[in-house]
Amino acid sequence: MSHELDGDRAFLDSIIKVADEIARPHADSVDRDARFPSESLAALRAERALSAGIGSELGGGGVSLSAIARACFELGRRCGSTAMVFAMHHIQVATISRHAADSPWLEQYLAAVAADQRLVASVTTELGTGGDMGRSIAPLTTAGDGTSCTFEKQAPVISYGAQADDLFVTLRRSPDAEQNDQVVAVVQNGQFTLEQTGTWDPLGMRGTCSPGFVVRGQIVPEQALSAPFAQIMAESMHPITHILWSHLWLGIATDAFDRARAFVRAATKGKSDDAPPPVAVRLSHLMSELSLLRAAVDSGLAEFVEASAQPGREQLLTMTSTLRFNNLKIATSEQAPRVCQGAMGVCGIMGFKNDSPFSVGRHLRDTMSASLMIANERIHQTNASLLLIAKDV
Ligand SMILES: Cc1cc2nc3c(=O)[nH]c(=O)nc-3n(C[C@H](O)[C@H](O)[C@H](O)COP(=O)(O)OP(=O)(O)OC[C@H]3O[C@@H](n4cnc5c(N)ncnc54)[C@H](O)[C@@H]3O)c2cc1C
Q1: 204-227: per-residue pLDDT in tens?
Q2: Distance 129 CA to ligand 1 centre (A)
Q3: Ligand 1 atom at minimum distance from 131 CA
Q4: Dihedral (C-alpha) 290, 357, 15, 84: value to the nearest 10 degrees?
Q5: Is the domain covering 229-387 a CATH 1.20.140.10 domain?
Q6: Residues in the chain with pLDDT < 50?
Q7: What does the pLDDT read at residue 5?
Q8: Atom of ligand 1 at shortest distance to CA of 124?
């Protein structure tokens, strides 16, 4: 994987240590019991990994987004749920960091995330709009004197809502605003209440602990990011989400491939036939599927890094860019479970069983969530409209 800066190495070494020593041994119990990966999060906090992407002037680690993406990959190889919690937290933190300039409140907030290793959850999905990120129903209501705002949002899915310190919430700008006139606000512990409305016993990504809640909050106006929502989405939330998610899905698929390879090596050990057995040839087919996934993930990150470095990040504001990162999401969310299913085909019953060293059931189930996390059909509909009007694709 490219784009790794020398300064990111120590961070990645610490992530790999946590992934190997903590996330991997607890992954099966996190999955079986649908419980929050608390051991992994404690270890990540101890390594100050929750503020790795925040600038060093605010007390963070100052590592690159490429290193955060690589960390999602490494965690995904050991525990998909830990990787998803880590990725979602860093999507919010990176978005706030990229749009905090000129906001003393947001800069102080980022310093607090670094000092206290605060965990930030995402509240975007809403009853009535589903996974449509471009619309909100719940409004932010500003009090008459303009000093405080309140909201109440019906959120059918909030990952680690009960474990998070703070929330990142999308809302309608005001009670009079259209549904597509949105803001995004940072809401701190003590400023919100959560009323749980559902349970969490899903097929995969069980450790993300993502039931529904009614969220009620009271904030000051400075807690809403001042940049236009469309700009925040295009420059940060949308591409970073798909880059970090695709890295962790690649991590899960890579571990499934590694297990299939270990199975084939064990099955052929001591056999001296000249020609590789059919199962080894099947592994080779699987490797080419994994290579496609890896190439898509790598090139998406490379293009984002390059576009982010340009003055004004203007490339990220184009329809071409929206199509680009939408397609990264669609391609990787479909390819990751395909690789995991291929790994199960290679391992056979040993991959199907939960209690075998070659088990890939968790991998397959975890990656099956990928196409739902902002439904691919919804993304195709956006793409279809853009394809009719975009100049370059
Ligand atoms: C593991 C996991 C963790 C999550 N964590 C969070 C979180 O922390 N915070 C959060 O806010 N959300 C979270 N979500 C929610 C997620 O990101 C999606 O927004 C949510 O799953 C969408 O709900 P839905 O399936 O009802 O989607 P909808 O988008 O409402 O879609 C419902 C159905 O309609 C179909 N559909 C929708 N639009 C179209 C269209 N235009 N054309 C054809 N078919 C269409 C879809 O394919 C789907 O079958 C999480 C989801 C998962 C799986």
Answers
A1: 999 999 999 999 999 999 999 999
A2: 9
A3: 19
A4: 70
A5: yes
A6: 1-3
A7: 65
A8: 11
Q: How far is CA 383 from CA 133, 237, 240, in A?
A: 14, 17, 18
Q: In angstroms, what is the span from residue 154 Cα to ligand 1's centroid?
A: 14
Atom index in ligand 1 nearest the CA of residue 88 equals 8
How confident is the model at residue 7, as a pLDDT? 75
Prediction pTM value: 0.97
How remote is the CA of residue 287 from the centroid of ligand 1, in Å?
Answer: 30
Among positive and negative, which fits the CA dihedral 112, 34, 247, 186?
A: negative
pLDDT tens-digit map of 382-391: 999 999 999 8
The CATH superfamily assigned to 121-223 is Butyryl-CoA Dehydrogenase, subunit A, domain 2 (2.40.110.10)
255 C-alpha vs ligand 1 centroid, how far in Å? 26
Pocket test for ligand 1, best of 91, 210, 238, 366 (most atoms within 8 A of CB): 210
326 CA distance to ligand 1 centroid (A)? Answer: 15
Would you give the DSSP letter of residue 163? T
Neighbour count for residue 81 (Cβ, 10 Å): 31
Integer Cα distance of 86 and 208 in angstroms = 10
